[in-house]
Amino acid sequence: MSFNKTTEESSHYEHLEKMSVSELLENINNEDKTVPLAVEKALPQIEKTVQKVVSQLKNGGRLFYIGAGTSGRLGVVDASECPPTFGVPFDLVVGIIAGGDKAIRRAVEFAEDDTEQAWKDLSEFNINQNDFVIGIAASGTTPYVIGGLEKCNQNNIPTGCITCNEGSPLAHVSQFPIEVVVGPEFVTGSSRMKAGTAQKLVLNMISTATMIQLGKVKGNKMVDMQLSNNKLVNRGIRMIMSEIPVSYEEAGILLEKFGSVRKAVESYLS
After folding, report:
1. What's the CA gap between 98 and 144, in Å, rounded?
2. Which residues contact residue 80 at a Cβ distance below 8 angstroms, ignoring those fewer than 6 apart?
3. Do the beta carbons of residue 232 and residue 225 sit within 8 Å?
4. Is 42 helix (H, G, I), strand (E, B) or coil?
5. How far apart are CA 65 and CA 21, in angstroms?
6. Cα separation of 63 and 70, whole Å?
7. CA distance 113 to 141
8. DSSP result, 198-225
9. Does the model's pTM come out above 0.90?
10. Residue 197 Cα to chain centre, angstroms
């Protein structure tokens, strides 16, 4: 199909090598300022996606991200941060990257061109109709991602996508497309820049809004976060102190005993 791939259009800037560091930074920053406005235009699409994700997870499903290169890495990052932040099982949100985990650090040649591999990767998790799969691809043309969503559709597994081109092949195979049109990159075609930023913002929205809807936040606090370092233990103690009338030492004892802010507060109040 033919469509206008704006992420590949020539940069608005010429002769980048002749710019001073100050000019480079100012111009990159000017381009970056446009990204939140592009995300804003996609809020209705993001809302529909989150509503469906929440529905699937409440029904016992899981959220999967699939992508290649930068897009795949962003999905892996967002998925990996959900357990420590919200105290959910490590397999509730799963990030899969073309080429496997080794591709997180080093590009795997031609991994994104395999139209069959994404379904094979998803199948290792016994994916089913209760799950939800989001394909991430700035261009909207990545074969790995498109092939994965096509197979999901054939197996009645709901699908969404995050792309930065309007009317892309990926959006056409996605039941819940999110299209954040950021335009040409500062360095022509370098979609790790504005497109990557846009994808990260949308992923933040999807996972955070979903977890709040699932009750993993109380007030504005991460009451189910994992206590995996001293900073988070200290944060947990102060959360407890803000909820119930106890000293720092007493809050620390409660947190150690019950293992989470939520359980410590609920136990005290009961």
Report:
1. 7
2. 95
3. yes
4. coil
5. 36
6. 19
7. 10
8. HHHHHHHHHHHHHHHHTT--BTTB-TT-
9. yes
10. 11
For residue 191, report the phi and psi dihedrals to the nearest 5 degrees: -75, 0
- Using CA atoms, how far apart are residues 30 and 171, in angstroms rounded to an integer? 28
Which of 31, 112, 185, 243 is catalytic? The answer is 112
Q: Residue 157 in contact with residue 10, Cβ under 8 Å?
A: no
Alpha-carbon Rg for the chain, nearest whole angstrom, is 21
Tens-digit pLDDT profile for residues 110-144: 889 999 999 999 999 999 999 999 999 999 999 99
To the query of whether residue 166 is one of the catalytic residues in this protein, the response is: no
- 3-state helix, strand, coil split of the chain in percent (to 5) is 55, 10, 35
The candidate with the shortest Cα–Cα distance to 108, out of 72, 145, 148, is: 72
CA distance 148 to 159: 10
Rounded to whole angstroms, the Cα distance separating 68 from 246 reads 49
270 and 230 Cβ atoms separated by less than 8 Å: no
Q: Is 65 helix (H, G, I), strand (E, B) or coil?
A: strand
pLDDT single digits (tens) 174-206 = 999 999 999 999 999 999 999 999 999 999 999
pLDDT digit string (tens) for 236-269? 999 999 999 999 999 999 999 999 999 999 988 8
112 included as an active-site residue: yes
* Pair type for strands 93-97 and 63-67: parallel
* Max CA pair span of the chain: 67
What is the pLDDT at residue 2?
67
Active-site option among 14, 31, 81, 116: 81
